[in-house]
TrEMBL record:
PANTHER family: 12-(S)-HYDROXY-5,8,10,14-EICOSATETRAENOIC ACID RECEPTOR, HYDROXYCARBOXYLIC ACID RECEPTOR 2. Keywords: G-protein coupled receptor, Membrane, Receptor, Transducer, Transmembrane, Transmembrane helix. Pfam families: 7tm_1. It is a multi-pass membrane protein. It comes from Mugilogobius chulae. The keyword Membrane applies. GO terms for molecular function: G protein-coupled receptor activity. This is G-protein coupled receptors family 1 profile domain-containing protein. Its main location: membrane.
Length: 340
C-alpha cells in the first residue's frame, strides 16, 4: 500500500490506492455485514427453490427468481475479497487475474440481477394489463432455456468491464502528449464500455417505470372483481423499483459525475471526492442481495408462506401450513397453535 502522506493525491487516484484509509475500512465493515447477513439468507432461499418448490417443475416465475438467487450468490463470492482489498488500502486486487475475475463476477451479477428483475416485472405487466393477449415473452417463458439465453447474452456485455482502468475509474485518462492512434483507440474503447455500463441501468429503469405506471393505472380503473392479483402485481413492481432505485441508480449517477470530473480535468481533490463517493455507492449497490428476497415474497404466492413455515414454523397453525410442493405434505410441523 502506498504511503498516503507522501504520495501525491493525483498519483494515488491513478494507482488505485485509497486516499481515506478510515473511510475505506468503514466500507469494508459494511461489506462484511452485508456478507454475514446475505449468505444464510440466500442459502436458505436457494434450498427452498431446489428442495421445496422444485423450481424446474413449477411456473416460470420461479425459474426467473432462482436465477436471481444465483446472481446474488455470484456477488457474495466477491464480497470478502473486496473487503480485504479495502482494508489493505487497495481499491482493487493487485493480482491481475483476481482483479479481472472479480470484475467479471461483480458485473455479471449486476447484469443478471437487473435482467431478471426486469423480465419478472415485464411478465407481471403482461399478466395484469394484457391478460388475454399473446406476446413474445409468454411464448418464450414456456421454455426453460430462456434463462440460459439471458446468461449467454450477458457475457458480451460483461467482458468489456474486465479492465483495471474500469475498476479504478480511470476511463478517459488525460494524455499529456499529442493524441496518438493508441490514445484515440483507448478513448473509443472507454466510451463504448461506459455506454454499456449506463445502458444496463437506464434502459431497464425506463421499462420498470413504464410497467409500474401501467399496472397502477390498471388497478385504479378496475372497479369490480377481485383486486388481489392487481394489488400483488403493484407491490411487486414497486418493490422492484425500490430495489433498483436504491441499489443501482445512485452508483450510476456517481459514475457519471466521476467521468465528467475526469474528462473536464477537475482538480485532484474534487476527483478524489467523486471517486470516494462512487466507491461508497458501489458498496450500497451490494445491498441488492439482501433486498431481492422482498421481490420473491411479492412475486410468488407460495414463497413467503413456505419460507416462514420451513424456517419459522412456530408462526403458523397446522391448518395454515403451506403445502410442500415436493411431497404434497405441510412444509413442517408447527411448534405452537397461534399465528403471530
Amino acid at each position: 500500500m502506498a504511503n498516503t502522506s507522501e504520495t501525491p493525491l493525483y498519483q494515488l487516484i491513478e494507482d488505485c490506492e485509497v486516499t481515506h484509509e478510515k473511510l475505506y475500512k468503514f466500507y469494508a465493515a459494511v461489506i462484511i455485514i452485508i456478507f454475514i447477513l446475505a449468505l444464510p439468507l440466500n442459502a436458505s432461499v436457494l434450498h427452498l427453490f431446489i428442495f421445496k418448490l422444485k423450481f424446474w417443475k413449477s411456473n416460470t416465475n420461479n425459474v426467473f427468481l432462482f436465477n436471481l438467487v444465483l446472481a446474488d450468490i455470484l456477488l457474495l463470492i466477491c464480497l470478502p475479497i473486496k473487503a480485504h482489498n479495502f482494508i489493505k488500502g487497495e481499491r482493487r486486487s493487485p493480482n491481475d487475474a483476481v482483479c479481472k475475475a472479480m470484475l467479471f463476477m461483480l458485473f455479471l451479477n449486476r447484469g443478471a440481477s437487473i435482467a431478471f428483475l426486469t423480465v419478472t416485472s415485464i411478465d407481471r405487466y403482461f399478466n395484469v394489463v394484457h391478460p388475454g393477449r399473446k406476446n413474445l415473452l409468454k411464448v418464450l417463458k414456456k421454455s426453460p432455456y430462456i434463462s440460459i439465453v439471458i446468461w449467454v447474452l450477458l457475457l458480451p456485455l460483461t467482458i468489456p468491464t474486465m479492465l483495471k482502468n474500469f475498476d479504478c475509474c480511470n476511463s478517459h485518462k488525460t494524455h499529456k502528449d499529442e493524441p496518438s492512434a493508441d490514445a484515440l483507440i483507448q478513448d473509443v474503447v472507454d466510451s463504448l464500455r461506459e455506454a454499456v455500463f449506463f445502458s444496463q441501468i437506464i434502459i431497464p429503469f425506463v421499462i420498470l417505470v413504464y410497467c409500474t405506471v401501467r399496472i397502477v393505472n390498471r388497478l385504479r380503473k378496475k372497479t369490480v372483481g377481485d383486486k388481489t392479483k392487481l394489488k400483488r402485481a403493484t407491490f411487486l413492481v414497486m418493490t422492484v423499483m425500490v430495489v433498483f432505485s436504491l441499489c443501482f441508480l445512485p452508483c450510476t449517477l456517481a459514475r457519471m459525475i466521476l467521468l465528467i470530473a475526469r474528462v473536464q480535468e477537475w482538480r485532484p481533490i474534487f476527483q478524489d471526492k467523486a471517486t470516494v463517493a462512487f466507491d461508497g455507492l458501489m458498496v450500497l449497490s451490494y445491498m441488492d442481495c439482501l433486498l431481492d428476497p422482498l421481490v420473491y415474497c411479492f412475486c410468488s404466492t407460495k414463497f413467503k408462506g413456505l419460507y416462514l413455515s420451513s424456517y419459522f414454523p412456530f408462526l403458523f397453525k397446522e391448518s395454515q401450513m403451506p403445502i410442500d410442493t415436493s411431497s404434497g405434505q405441510p412444509a413442517s410441523k408447527p411448534a405452537r397453535n397461534t399465528v403471530i
